[in-house]
Specification:
Helix content is 57%, strand content 0%. It has 76 residues and is an all-alpha fold. The protein has a domain at 25-64.
């Protein structure tokens, strides 16, 4: 019993039966994929940062045009 329930127990495979799928990948290939992933993340972060700056500057323009002390009926 495990945490109040029946536990299912199975015999595990022998280590020689395990499929070693990553053996065909070379160190250079893994390094290349890692570099590509890092470059993709860096580009994504750069464009996100630029978008954030653009949105932040436009929010500042609207804050100057409509300050928080403005009464809404006066905006018309």
């Amino acid at each position: 019993m495990l945490l109040g329930e029946e536990a299912e127990v199975r015999i595990c495979n022998e280590p020689s039966d395990i499929l070693w799928e990553n053996l065909e990948n070379t160190k250079i290939g893994r390094t290349g994929r890692t570099c590509c992933a890092h470059i993709f993340v860096a580009i994504f972060l750069f464009f996100t940062f630029v978008l954030f700056l653009i949105l932040r500057s436009s929010a500042g323009k609207f804050a100057d045009k409509y300050p928080s002390s403005t009464n809404c009926p006066k905006i018309k």
